[in-house]
């Protein structure tokens, strides 16, 4: 009896949502977003204030002029995850992004963990950007707001609460919450306006830098550094020289800089939350993700090149690199354009961070994993009204009260975890049999032949009577379509590979000297680890893939997804112990909600009591599928 209850409980944790839409359920969200709207949303949320600040920090202390290569490496790493989001956007066009993708592939518990961490990432991200917007605006008017608030609303709880109550950030988040509640099209219009202004300002910065720049700044020597020291009144303002030239800190500097620049491309995943609001999600979601990442790369690449051409990298001011660069070339008034661009970038970044937050909460509540009241759709605006109000109020209070600098790393853990699960889901799902490929668990027969894929826009038909049945057999690489057995092989190998890549990422992040020490024990362990990874990858590669045509598919499976998982895990393993401890506290809160409410109210709970359908039952039933051609 105990074993039965344990097995039943375990099945609840891994129950999955159907890949297709639920029968008789229609979304109340409005399909009003075009591809241009999604591109503006993706660029706006990704191309935030980092483009005005991050380039200066990395160029001065980590990479010098080779920061352009750092952004190229970081963009390629981000594209690995972006391609997987693009395929899932085609395959499962629904709200929820990584949460939904995990739910249909790896099961309910992993999906809840993903969604719960996405909520944390979006809330902290929105509060942080709101504080940055408030600080930037305050600097433009001579810090009058902060001085007034510190005098009347000062808080004396260091490292927990902020030094003062930030009313400006509170009001800003609440205003944007109201805008999001008005409708998706209204939010998209504001995003397009601010993103357009931001791109105009960045274009001005890039062209100005190329006009006023000097190629000699990419070939600096020790003599130039000595001259700069002798001419500088503040010796501490100069950064390290390194070895000079285009790569003053070598390949190690490029790798360190690329790891930092990777976070500059975080944000494109908000596009994937619009699956129920995009007019043509199968086409527009993958297209807009790729276009957004390409535009952001061009902007980061161009600004970093212009900055390092305008002034020597060791003289860059990390706090305000672009205004100081224009002062260096004698264009002081241009700093006002930079200030305007910074505010526009922060505005679109804030709106882009807040937009997906209620969509994830709505998707989880609609599935019963969060409180059902949060799934309410406003009948006139067609927005998730309760989820929007709840998430906006939470983010506003975070920006109003808390010191967020210690919590920002939690954003990275949540985002990278979501990226990794999406990539894993794409890898597993590509090798699974079609939804209509069913198995009779009583007789052990398996449908191994399916009808050709339907035309674009039509649902997958079920096999008709007369379909060839065959007994199950060991995997045969000559088969062109996957079977249940080959799908299980891929699932098991992918799970083991994820664990091995996690171990490899932990070793490289925390103990790289041991791995490269040359000692026989460490060398043998590293070789065995690599051989296991290569062997499992080869096994997955030999399995047949699902031939269902999609608007977009990730190329070079399984290598690209596995490379993406490794990059994400490596970056996660660089987080501090304190960050992981705070992550653990957040997860305890989430598990309390899931095991206290979600596991009992999930819409998939009825599937636990239903007996498995036989082949004859499956053949007589029209099963919907989201795998549209």
Automatic annotation (TrEMBL):
The chain crosses the membrane at residues 32-54, 66-86, 98-124, 161-182, 189-211, 254-275, 287-314, 334-355, 385-404, 410-431, 489-509, 521-542, 554-573, 579-597. One of its GO terms (molecular function) is L-arginine transmembrane transporter activity. Residues 552-602 form the Cationic amino acid transporter C-terminal domain. InterPro entries: AA/rel_permease1, Cat_AA_permease, CAT_C. It is found in: Cell membrane. The keyword Protein biosynthesis does not apply. It catalyses: L-lysine(in) = L-lysine(out); L-arginine(in) = L-arginine(out); L-ornithine(in) = L-ornithine(out). Residues 606-629 are annotated as: Disordered. It comes from the Eukaryota. It is a multi-pass membrane protein. Keywords: Amino-acid transport, Cell membrane, Glycoprotein, Membrane, Transmembrane, Transmembrane helix, Transport. Pfam families: AA_permease_2, AA_permease_C. GO terms for cellular component: plasma membrane. PANTHER family: INNER MEMBRANE TRANSPORTER YGJI-RELATED (PTHR43243), MGC138914 PROTEIN (PTHR43243:SF10). Belongs to the amino acid-polyamine-organocation (APC) superfamily. Cationic amino acid transporter (CAT) (TC 2.A.3.3) family. This is Cationic amino acid transporter 3-like. It comes from Enhydra lutris kenyoni. The lineage of its organism: Eukaryota, Metazoa, Chordata, Craniata, Vertebrata. The gene is LOC111139593.
């Amino acid at each position: 009896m105990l074993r039965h209850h344990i097995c039943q409980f375990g099945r609840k944790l891994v129950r999955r949502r159907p890949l297709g839409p639920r029968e008789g359920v229609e979304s109340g969200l409005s399909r009003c977003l075009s591809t241009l709207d999604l591109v503006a949303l993706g660029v706006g949320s990704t191309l935030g204030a980092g483009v005005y600040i991050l380039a200066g920090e990395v160029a001065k202390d980590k990479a010098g002029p080779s920061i352009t290569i750092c952004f190229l490496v970081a963009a390629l790493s981000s594209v690995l995850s972006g391609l997987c989001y693009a395929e899932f956007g085609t395959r499962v066009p629904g709200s929820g992004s990584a949460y939904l993708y995990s739910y249909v592939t790896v099961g309910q518990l992993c999906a809840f963990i993903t969604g719960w961490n996405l909520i944390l990432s979006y809330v902290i991200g929105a509060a942080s950007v709101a504080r940055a917007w408030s600080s930037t605006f305050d600097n433009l008017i001579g810090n009058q707001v902060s001085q007034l608030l510190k005098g009347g609303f000062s808080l004396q709880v260091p490292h927990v609460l902020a030094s003062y109550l930030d009313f400006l950030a509170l009001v800003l988040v609440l205003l944007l919450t109201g805008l999001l509640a008005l409708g998706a099209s209204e939010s998209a219009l504001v995003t397009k306006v601010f993103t357009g202004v931001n791109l105009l300002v960045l274009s001005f910065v890039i062209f100005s830098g190329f006009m006023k720049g000097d190629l000699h700044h990419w070939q600096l020597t020790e003599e130039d550094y000595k001259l700069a020291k002798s001419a500088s009144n503040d010796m501490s303002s100069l950064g390290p020289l390194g070895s000079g030239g285009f790569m003053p800190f070598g390949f190690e500097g490029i790798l360190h800089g690329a790891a930092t620049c990777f976070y500059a491309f975080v944000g494109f995943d908000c596009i994937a939350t619009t699956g129920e609001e995009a007019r043509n999600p199968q086409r527009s979601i993958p297209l807009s993700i790729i276009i957004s990442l390409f535009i952001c790369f061009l902007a980061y690449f161009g600004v970093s090149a212009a900055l390092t051409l305008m002034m020597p990298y060791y003289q860059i001011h990390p706090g305000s690199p672009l205004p100081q660069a224009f002062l260096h070339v004698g264009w002081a008034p241009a700093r006002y354009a930079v200030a305007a661009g910074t505010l526009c970038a922060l505005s679109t970044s804030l709106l882009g961070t807040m937009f997906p937050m209620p969509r994830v909460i709505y998707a989880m509540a609609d599935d019963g994993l969060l409180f059902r009241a949060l799934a309410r759709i406003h009948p006139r605006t067609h927005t998730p009204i309760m989820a929007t109000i709840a998430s906006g109020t939470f983010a506003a209070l975070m920006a109003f009260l808390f010191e967020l600098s210690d919590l920002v790393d939690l954003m990275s853990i949540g985002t990278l975890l979501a990226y990794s699960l999406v990539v894993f889901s794409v890898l597993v799902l590509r090798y699974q049999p079609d939804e209509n490929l069913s198995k009779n668990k009583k007789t052990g027969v398996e449908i191994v032949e399916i009808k050709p894929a339907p035309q674009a826009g039509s649902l997958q038909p079920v096999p008709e009577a007369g379909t060839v049945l065959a007994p199950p057999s060991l995997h045969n690489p000559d088969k062109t379509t996957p079977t249940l057995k080959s799908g299980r092989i891929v699932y098991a190998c992918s799970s083991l590979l994820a664990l091995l890549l996690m171990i490899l990422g932990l070793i490289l992040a925390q103990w790289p000297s041991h791995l490269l020490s040359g000692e026989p024990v460490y060398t043998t362990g590293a070789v065995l680890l690599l051989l296991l990874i290569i062997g499992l990858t080869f096994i997955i590669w030999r399995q047949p893939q699902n031939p269902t045509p999609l608007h977009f598919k990730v190329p070079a499976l399984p290598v690209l997804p596995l490379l993406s998982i490794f990059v994400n895990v490596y970056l996660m393993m660089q987080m501090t112990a304190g960050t992981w401890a705070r992550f653990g506290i957040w997860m305890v809160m989430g598990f309390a909600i899931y095991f206290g409410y979600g596991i009992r109210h999930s819409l998939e709970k009825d599937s636990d009591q239903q007996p498995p359908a036989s082949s004859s039952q499956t053949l007589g039933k029209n099963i919907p599928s989201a795998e549209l051609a």
